[in-house]
Amino acid sequence: MEVRNGEPFQCPTGNQPQALGERAEGMETPIQVVLRVRPMNQAELRRGEQSVLHCSGPRTLRVSPLGGGQDVAFHFSVVMDGARTQDEVFQGSGVQRLVELALRGFSCTAFTFGQTGSGKTYTLTGPSPQGEGETVPPSLTGLMQRSFACLLDKVQNVGTPITLSASYLEIYNEQVRDLLSQRPHHHLPVRWNKTRGFYVEKLKAVKFGTFEEVMELLLEGLRRRRSSAHSLNEVSSRSHALFTIHIQCPVGCPSRPKEQTFGKLCFVDLAGSEKVAATCSRGELMLEASNINRSLLALGHCISLLLDPRQKKNHIPYRDSKLTRLLADSLGGSGITLMVACVSPSAQSLPETLNTLRYASRAQRVTTRAMPKDPLGPQRLGLEEEIQQLRQENLMLKQMLEQPLGHRASRRKGSRSGWAERSLYGMLQEFMLENQQLREEKHQLRSSRDCAQKEKQVLVQQLNELNRRLLCSAGRSVRCPPQHFCSPSLLCPCSVSPGHCQTPACHQVLPPLCSCHCNQLCLLCYAPCAGSQLRQDQANQKESTADLKHYINRREGSLLPGYLPSQIFSELPPLHVFGAQTKTPWKMEVSSPQVQTQTIAPPPGPNLKEHPVKRKSSEWAWAHFLAETLAKEETSGRASQVMPSAPPLPQGPCSTPWRPGGVPSASRMLEEELEVLRDQIDCTLHLGQGKPPSSQEKHFGSGQHLPPC
Ligand SMILES: Nc1ncnc2c1ncn2[C@@H]1O[C@H](COP(=O)(O)OP(=O)(O)OP(=O)(O)O)[C@@H](O)[C@H]1O
């Protein structure tokens, strides 16, 4: 391959688009590039600018730089200078061949490219109408009008009904507008699918059958197309415009008699690249110029990548702009493309002209694999039917989604989509039910946990109380000698830290454990009990002791003057001393809902009869102890011993005179009396426990402990 100007050069072979059509389909075919040089316009002539472009042949353009530099040659399929008429351009550019290929089902594109004011719109549509209602002279009409006429002429000659329709859109500031719509400012989205490639959704396609109809559509779009004036062009297009004719040929068409074809002929009038400084664009013009240049840059980038076969197989960034998306098929797909590069001969425009020439040189090396628009032929019919079915199914599913759930589930039984839907909704319902069950289970577990915690608190409280009782029982298991009653080594734990709790509420819960001073602590918190109650109890204790002393003296005093009672009372545990010894007052009476304080009826005595205070079990425990001691001493004969330290017998009336030798009978009487007293005490104590005393407990001996509380 020959290399010119540093780039590979493929020698043009005349009317290449026509040669393309004669070649086999599916072959790699380069983009055909026609270069048109417009004549110098009035402004350039007024400024006296020189021409730097020279056509040295039908396919060669030479650029002669100012200052006498070396000429640079560019070669294209066709090169046309400014003297060529519109008809010559149409005849020589190969557009007619494009029309033929479009009728055979190919997707054909002719687009113009160049800087602003270089003649692109002029080449495609001719000069702008000079006034309202003015039409372009037939001699000046562009490639489009001539192509329309050519197409309609061929269609009429085919003899079979061919459906023609046209759409016209512009890409203005990267927004697609329908130029045939009554709402041209409404933006249309660009979509893609496998069968159509990129396409504009909801783009209006208007059927036509005559030249007048299609010209009406063209003029309608041209009127709506955005254009503005700047320093280089009074009527400068500010958008890329795509006018597309859709050609639908039925089966039996001479070109492809066995299949239906869908050809396309698209004319693209690109907005011109421009330097903002040169056009003095400001505001909206500058924004438009920015968008135009950006999209043209994306187009040039795609073309550059399409030059490399490896890149072409990988990824071409068509999505960089709306323009490249809509030209994707024409550039790298199955279309046939003709590019008309327009340049100005003026030396002032040389930099932009060189850019256009380089751009066009690259573009003509891009190849497409030309294929009819509908290569599948009959298979397409089946695909279309399937597409139609899928569309209906899609529509149906959309309607079902809009319906209520229950109604939806009951419908469409037996169909595949209905089965899938039922499965999904069934699973959803199952999950919801399971979720609800788990929530309820969680709630129940929480309730059980709370109950267990409360139960645990109660059990811990009970355990503490049992521990306390156990410790108290352990401290009480060794009987204290009267003189060391509740010695410190045997103190129950509550006595270790007396006085730490002054809360009286818990002091009334449990019965007294024993008669030691641990009894005078709170059974729950081990705090000392209230002082007023202690004083009362001390008083009661004194009275109880006095009553007992009096009772014994009354019965035995005359027989054993000054001995037995005095000994007994000298050994009495200092109940009254406890209160005096301890600074903290003690409480002796403990009551609870379960165990009520038991009153004991004392033996009648001089003071007891009218004694208003009832005896408590703790008090009578003392009496029980004293009586038991007395009985033991009487039995062991200690009663004959005389205690010098014994206090004198109390003096008082005595109904029974004392007789020598009467001690045994008196002892027996006393023993009987003590037995009665013992029974009463036992009964009282067992009543405090809520059970009757056993026979064994009823006759516990002197060496036995007091029954547990
Ligand atoms: N071959 C030609 N013969 C005579 N006049 C021409 C030719 N080409 C262009 N002109 C004139 O040059 C002016 C600019 O042309 P045109 O509007 O087609 O440029 P353009 O490339 O489309 O510019 P833009 O990109 O700004 O739209 C117009 O007045 C047009 O009539």
From TrEMBL:
GO terms for biological process: microtubule-based movement; mitotic spindle organization; spindle elongation. GO terms for cellular component: microtubule; microtubule associated complex. Pfam families: Kinesin. ATP binds at G114, Q115, T116, G117, S118, G119, K120, T121. Keywords: ATP-binding, Coiled coil, Cytoplasm, Cytoskeleton, Microtubule, Motor protein, Nucleotide-binding, Phosphoprotein. Residues 1-24, 635-665, 685-709 are annotated as: Disordered. Residues 30-366 form the Kinesin motor domain. SMART domains: KISc. It comes from the Eukaryota. One of its GO terms (molecular function) is ATP binding. Transmembrane segments: none annotated. Its main location: cytoplasm. Residues 428-469 form a coiled coil. It is found in: Cytoplasm, Cytoskeleton. Belongs to the TRAFAC class myosin-kinesin ATPase superfamily. Kinesin family. This is Kinesin-like protein. It comes from Phascolarctos cinereus (Koala).
